[in-house]
Amino acid sequence: MKRAFLAALTLTLLAGPAWAQSPPPSPADIDAATQAWIATMGADAIARSNSYFEGKYWIGYAGAALTVAVCALLLVPGWFAGVRGWLEKTLKLKFLVAWGAALAFLLVLSVLTFPFDYWVFFVREHQYGISNQAFGPWLGEYLTNAGLNLVLFPLFLAILYFFVRVAKDAWWVWASAVTALFFAVIVAAAPVFISPLFNTYTPMQEGPLKADILQMAQANGVPAENVFVYDESRQSHRVSANVSGLLGTTRISLADNLLNRVSPEGVRMVTGHEIGHYVLGHVWSLIVALSLFAGALYACVHYAFKAIAKNERWGVRGLSDPAGLPLAFALFVAFAAIATPINNTIIRFHEHQADIYGVNASRAPDGFAETALLLSEYRKMHPSPLEEWFFYDHPSGYTRIHMAMQWKAHEMAAGRLPQSPLGPPDGYKPAFVVTDSAD
Ligand SMILES: [Zn+2]
Fold it and tell me: How far is the centre of ligand 1, averaged over its atoms, from the C-alpha of 302 (Å)?
C-alpha cells in the first residue's frame, strides 16, 4: 500500500507541471506575438532587409543567364571545338582531353563572370552594410575559392565524361553516384582542408556557456569534446554557426559574431539547431537527396543535349565530346535555375527539422526569436507562403518566430515553462549592426 502510494507520488512528480499551467493559447495570440517581435525591427530595417533579399531573386536568374551567354559565346562560333581539337592533338588521352577542356572552360567562365561576382559579392554586400571587408582580403579569398574550384571541378567533369563514354545513355545514373561521392569527400575534407583557408578556427573559451553547450551536446548523444569558434567577423557581420565534417571530422563551430552579438539563450538555441542537424543525420540525407536531384538534372541535360546538338552542330560530335561542354553546362545551369524551388525545399525541409529540434533541446524560444531577427540583416522576414517555398533555403524569420512562440505558448500552458509574456520584452531592440547603408 505504501509502495503503491510512493509509486503514484513519483509518477505525479515526473509527469506533473513544474510551474503554473495556463489556458491553451489561441492562434491569434501566437500571430500577435510574432508580429510584435518583428515590429521591434522598425520600418527602416524591414525595408532594407526586404530590398536586399528580394534583389537576390533576380540576381540569381541574371547570374544563370550570364553563364548561359558565356557558354553560347564559346560554343556557337565553334571556338570550343577548336580548343578540343588542339587538346586532342597535344594530350591524346581522352580523360586528359576532357579534363583540359573542363579547365579551359571554367577558366574562361571565371574570368568573364568576375565583374558580375564583384558587384554581387563585394559592392552590393558593402552597399547594404553586411560586409566591412577591404577589397584586398576579399579578392584574396575570391581567388582562393576560384583556385579550389579549378582544382576540383575539371577532375569531376572529366570523371563524368568517362561515364558518358562508358555507360552511354545510362551515364547520368552513374554521374549521380559520383556526385554523392564527391559531396561526401568535400564535406569530410572541409573542416580540415577547406574552411581553414578562409577562417581561423580556435577552441571556444572555457566558461559557463561552453560548459552549458557541451552538456546539451552530450545530453543529445553528440560525442563533442570541444566547440570551435571561427572569425567570421573577418568577412561580415553575419551571425552563423555550422556543423561540418563527416565521420571523424565532424564538429560544431560557432561564428565569433554569434558569440559577440547574441545572448547566451540565443547561442544555446543556435547550437541546439546545429546539434539537430547532427543527430538527425542531415549530412547523409542531404548528400543522398541532393545527388538524386543532381541525377534528375543530368537526365534533363542528356535528353535536351541530344535534341539540340544532333547532326554535329557547332563542331560537336555528340554528348561524349568535350567540345559540347559549354552546351551541357548551359543546359545544366538553365534546368537548375528552373528547379530552384526544389533545391530550396530539400534544404529548407532539413532546416525546419533542425529548428524544431533546436528549440526542444535548448528550451530557449526567446533566444530563437532574437536570433531570427538578426538574420533579417540578410533574409527578408515575412514573405508570402509562395515566395518562401520558391526562394528560401531556410525558413523565414516569420516562420521561425511563429514556431518559437507556438512552442513557448504550449509549453507554458502545460506548466513546463515559467509564465512570461509571449512576444518581446518591453522596450526590446534587436542588436543590429547594419544601421545605415552609407559606410
Ligand atoms: Zn541549419
Answer: 33
